[in-house]
Design a protein that fits this description.
Blueprint (H helix, E strand, L loop, with lengths): L14 H28 L4 H23 L5 E2 L32 H6 L1 E4 L4 E4 L2 E4 L4 E4 L3 E3 L4 E3 L4 H26 L15 H9 L5 H33 L27 H10 L21 E4 L8 E3 L2 E3 L11
Parallel strand pairs: 1-8
Antiparallel strand pairs: 2-3, 3-8, 4-5, 6-7, 9-10
């Protein structure tokens, strides 16, 4: 097996990438702020609905913060790569025992090497189910997709917060849409020919012809974009739950991941966890509590680390800091 040293390749900061990384989050914040403002200003006496709206807004913001604080980025370990190291006498013994004795072998070398792949962009050895994101310029474990509107990648470690965010964003958008639609009914009858005024391009043309007011165009814009946001959140929620349920993402192959690739699990890594077990990998124990409060006193998916790439020889069979000249020699080592 050959391993190459390469310089990390990063995507250049072009104007298109800069717009993709800044415009969608700003649009998201603006849309949420306007819908919230109109909802609170148009219902000054409905205290119950105002509390519901504030609760939904709090859940959205809190889960967005938790989404950012729990990114699925693969961190860099300061330790040696456990599958192999340089073939030099000073490195043939594990540092875990002060270099006095070899580290005890736990698994076969072929199994160990099968769990890792190389990322030339990050210059790392990363777990098998890791993918590199050109926008974040980092390796993400079990990458689902890069969310432009939240400004970060959706991976194994923050998928639960993304799904909860989508749920409350869909509810908040629906509540804001109901409020804006109800306000528009005082000016345009939605069950007559005036229903065309509820479509933004038509309203813009009417505004340019002095047939519609400026505030009406703003309301229609919020209505149209809010409906798109609501449908998009529902779609991402369904797709995200389905991906978590079956245990694979769009970035992974159509085949079901092999058992040795699913090493970050809540049970024995040698056993199949099933569909409900895959949801447990994403949400952790008592994961349904995330839909009530964004912070729960239970552990989520364990952290994932990568290792700096190093040079080795084709005939090296090295595991846990111990070097062997052939794979046959491993059969005589303690396990």
């Amino acid at each position: 097996m050959r391993f190459r040293l390469g310089r990390p390749r990063r995507r250049s900061g072009s104007l298109g990438n800069l717009l993709l990384e800044t415009v969608p989050p700003l649009f998201h914040v603006t849309l949420t702020s306007l819908l919230t403002y109109l909802f609170l200003s148009l219902r000054p006496d409905d205290h119950y609905l105002r509390l519901v709206g504030l609760f939904l807004l709090f859940q959205m913001l809190a889960n967005w913060v938790m989404f950012w604080l729990n990114q699925a980025t693969v961190s860099v370990s300061p330790k040696n790569f456990p599958a192999y190291i340089h073939r030099y006498p000073s490195l043939t013994h594990s540092r875990a025992h002060g270099g006095e004795q070899p580290t005890e072998l736990h698994v076969a070398p072929e199994f160990e090497r099968h769990l890792w792949r190389e990322c030339e962009s990050c210059d790392l050895h990363v777990p098998k189910r890791t993918h590199h994101c050109g926008h974040c310029r980092r390796c993400i474990f079990v990458l689902d997709h890069h969310c432009y509107f939240l400004g970060a990648c959706v991976g194994r470690h923050n998928l639960r917060f993304f799904l909860v965010f989508c749920w409350y964003a869909a509810l908040g958008s629906a509540l804001g849409l109901f409020n804006v639609f109800e306000a528009l009914t005082f000016y345009r009858d939605p069950y007559s020919r005036e229903a065309a005024y509820y479509v933004l391009p038509y309203t813009v043309v009417m505004y340019l012809m002095d047939q519609a007011a400026a505030f009406e165009m703003l309301y229609v814009a919020l209505l149209n974009f809010g409906a798109g946001a609501c449908l998009a959140c529902l779609y991402l929620l369904v797709v995200g739950f389905y991906s978590a349920y079956i245990g694979k993402t769009p970035h992974e192959s159509g085949k079901r991941p092999k058992p040795e690739q699913l090493i970050y699990r809540w049970d024995d890594p040698e056993l199949e966890v099933g569909c409900w077990g895959h949801l447990g990998e994403v949400f952790g124990p008592y994961g349904w509590l995330h839909f009530l409060v964004p912070i729960v006193p239970f552990e989520g998916p364990p952290p994932v680390v990568g290792y700096r790439r190093i040079i080795t020889y084709n005939n090296d069979y090295i595991l846990d800091g111990t070097v062997f000249t052939s794979e046959v020699d491993l059969d005589f080592q303690p396990s």
